[in-house]
Amino acid sequence: MRASIAAIVSTCLALLLSAGLALANDDSIVIELRDHVVTCGELNDRFQVAVRVLAMQQGVSLADQNPSVIERLRVQYLDKHATELVMLWEADRRDVAASPEEVDGALDALRTSGIEGEILLRKIVQDEQTVQLVTELLLQEIAIPPGDVVTLHHDIKHTLITPEEVCVRHIQSASAEAAEEILAELERDADFAKLASERSEDEASAGKGGDLGCFQEGHVPAKSEFEKAAFEAGKVGVVGPIESEFGYHVIDVYEYKPPHELTLNEAFDDIERELKQELLPRRVNTLISESGIKTYPENFAASDAGG
Asked: pTM for the full model?
């Protein structure tokens, strides 16, 4: 749900910048929630920062698009913020709020990306994180009969298969010749971890004996030669030299985990959460209905800059 809203708002940014439309900026009320009101100008300011954050996060490329859908997208953003306000009211009722430390951590990445508007940006980030906290509480409160979990597991268990996985360590060299020398030393029973710590040019893993941890097939970008070699090594084994953009690698597959169909016990928590997430919109809609919130989309309309 959040991802689809983000996509809509990111598209909206592209539309706004390509269509040459101006946003209204006045004191017209666009949202009322109890004794709290949001004006068109306030929502415009928030909208401008929020769409730039989302565009940065998603790498949106701006292109010419049909401006006729802008009004629909703007109303969707208005509805999104109205929902946020209801969730924030619920968070306040429950005395839930994101900590300053959590907000600071989330802000660091945005600051380095050049997003302007520090005070408003902080407010947006704080609100988003607080909404996430109260959403998690709502999820926890939704009761799912265990029988529903059992039934769904029975229906989808053939799809609940973890891919094969390998646990890998490596020694990175600048040349194929250096990698061949390392292979020869390993064939003479040299200690892999010791060689990695002394000879590997990958400083990040050298201190851990070359250990890169475990990964599933397909989780290394572009099905790289490194990944192919790791999975073709068999259940365990040393292979190399394998060339990559970083150099030449000697790879040790020290553990192999075959594909595995998740049992009911293994999948129970994830299935239960999935069922809770399906019921979450109903719970949120109830909060919205009970809040008495009102929106005025006609006051949040774009006007033609040329008019």
From this structure: 0.64
